[in-house]
Amino acid sequence: ILSVIQPGDWLFTQMGHNDASKEKPERHTEPFTTYKSYLSQYIHGARAKGATPLLLTPVGRFHEKDGEYINDFPDYCAAMKELADEEEVLLVDLNTVSLQFYQISGIEKTTSFFMLSTGIEDRTHFTKEGADVIARLVSLELKDLGLTIV
Predict the structure, then answer these.
(1) Which pLDDT tens digit goes with each residue over 59-107?
(2) How many CB atoms lie within 10 A of CB 27?
(3) Rounded to whole angstroms, how far apart are CA atoms 127 and 13?
């Protein structure tokens, strides 16, 4: 990234899904220490190159219980928000808006957003339809921040 990013560019950083995998130590980070440290590297690297960093909390997974969607990354979201405040970086709370959107959409429709609809038991990765939905959510959040990024 640092070899190609230029002044005026934006660097959107969204991490947390792999970091939360305690059963995979090669991926795992602790939310308020190593996770924040890795995110800081992206922030400082972007700024050093004249680019603007923007953080996005981890997008919600398809994790539903009794009709409610569950945040699988509460500490990672909190750590990212804390870092955004400390570093004065813009933040999109994609976790909250995606889970709210799933709730409004309902189980049947939300299922079509994930690879579950293809017969694969994947509650993290999106179908094209799901990716388009998340991209629209990000776009709306950027607009709410007053950004018009081309």
Answers:
(1) 999 999 998 999 999 999 999 999 999 999 999 999 999 999 999 999 9
(2) 12
(3) 21
Task: Work out the angle at residue 23's Cα, subtended by the Cα atoms of residues 17 and 26, and round it to the nearest 5 degrees.
Answer: 75
For residue 2, being part of any structural domain is answered with: no
In a domain, 4, yes or no: no
Place of tokens 């398809």: 62
Query: How far is it, in rounded angstroms, from Cα 43 to Cα 87?
Result: 8
Query: For residues 86-102, b (16+ Cβ closer than 10 Å) or e, as one string?
Result: ebebbbbbbbebbbebb
Place of tokens 């992206």: 42
**CATH, residue 124:** 3.40.50.1110
